[in-house]
Amino acid sequence: MINSVRILDREQYETDKKELLEILKSKTIPVIAKNRYRDGKIVSFNRENIIGGIGRTCNFGLVRSRKYGYCNSRFSKKWPEVNKSIFKFVNHICPVGMDVTSITLNHGVKAKKHKDGFNIGDSVIVGIGEYEEGKLRVYS
User: Fold this and answer.
1) Total domains, the chain
2) Is 123 within the bounds of a domain?
3) Residue 84, domain extent
4) Residues 39-73: pLDDT tens digits?
5) Does residue 139 sit within a domain?
6) What is the pTM of this model?
7) Mean pLDDT across the chain
8) Fewest CB atoms less than 10 Å from the CB: which of 38, 64, 65, 81?
9) Is residue 103 part of a domain?
């Protein structure tokens, strides 16, 4: 089911969005990690295998690591000011009582049809910044 979320404090929302976008201007979001091949076979599956290879992406908050299990993302550690700002901003968007543990930040991503297999509970998608011709298709 798709629902719209009402922003309760529009002025603070705009302030926090502006702050987040300003912080993000100084960062270079990494390109989508490519699969690694050996002898024509994939030996390491990365984000390219899931969403496609066009764009930039990184995660904040809790992530599932093959090596460490659930842990804080490397970008939460690398860019603590982005982590703080993005979670502050998300509080305006998510319904009251929704626990937010992870945030994926995409820039210029042209994703192929995929299912977010490890999501637990509801998901929220929001577009911010200046862009044209963005499309979102939700399959259920």
Assistant:
1) 1
2) no
3) 10-107
4) 776 555 555 455 666 678 888 998 888 788 889 99
5) no
6) 0.75
7) 79
8) 38
9) yes
